[in-house]
Write a structure and sequence with these properties.
6 helices; three-stranded antiparallel sheet; four-stranded antiparallel sheet; 216 residues; 24% strand; single chain; Aminopeptidase
Length: 216
């Protein structure tokens, strides 16, 4: 992979600072493919290379495997996907969402990425470029899901950490809002590990559960 000189040097300088802290190495190629930043993150029981990226054409089967394993619990695991949709078309839809093209009403531009460890998808993340009224109240900038078989291994913390970096460095978002259900202990810990500060807890007849709102 070829990279631009200045961005490359800055990225690896940052990676070296993180690596000096003794954590596991995480390699994260950013979306413009002109810069590759190696950062560090520590999974509580794993020492694996985790990459946030879109799947390649030959990885459709793995994407559908992760979708089918997770969608009974999280129906929206694959945003904008419809059963039977051509894989190439789905990737085009995700590219449109990132550009802000052909957005459904009340939607905002979104970068949608998958968390790969080797050839396996362990989760996914949705990084919203801005907030509308709904996202400001309960949705936040970043929504992430870990595939059931890969939970409690530290991947959620890593996915959120890398997503925060993308939101700041690629999208210019200074304050990042992340939300979770009031009783979701795992998500609360994940957000706090990434520097989240509780703003408030919101509830209402439109919500199944109260939502915690954290700013990073």
């Amino acid at each position: 992979m070829r990279t631009s000189g200045i961005g490359y040097r800055r990225g690896w300088a940052r990676a070296n600072r993180w690596a000096a802290r003794g954590d596991a190495s995480i390699d994260m190629p950013l979306r413009d493919r002109n810069l590759q930043i190696a950062v560090s993150a520590l999974g509580s029981r794993c020492r694996q290379i985790l990459t946030l990226r879109l799947p390649r054409q030959d990885e459709e089967e793995e994407l559908l495997r992760a979708h089918r394993a997770t969608s009974p619990e999280v129906p929206g695991f694959l945003h904008y996907y419809k059963e039977g949709m051509l894989f190439s078309r789905y990737l085009e839809v995700l590219a449109d969402q990132e550009r802000g093209a052909n957005l459904p009403p009340n939607h905002v531009p979104t970068t949608f990425l998958f968390a790969f460890v080797a050839t396996r998808i362990v989760g996914r993340v949705s990084i919203r470029h801005s907030l509308n009224e709904f996202l400001e109240r309960v949705g936040g900038h970043i929504g992430y899901v870990v595939v059931p078989e890969f939970r409690r291994l530290g991947y959620a913390t890593t996915i959120l950490r890398l997503s925060v970096q993308i939101a700041r460095e690629k999208l210019g978002i200074g304050r990042i809002l992340v939300t979770c259900d009031d009783d979701n202990i795992g998500s609360i810990r994940t957000i706090k590990k990434n520097g989240g500060i509780l703003d408030n807890v919101v509830s209402g007849p439109d919500l199944d559960k109260p939502k915690r709102r954290y700013w990073i």
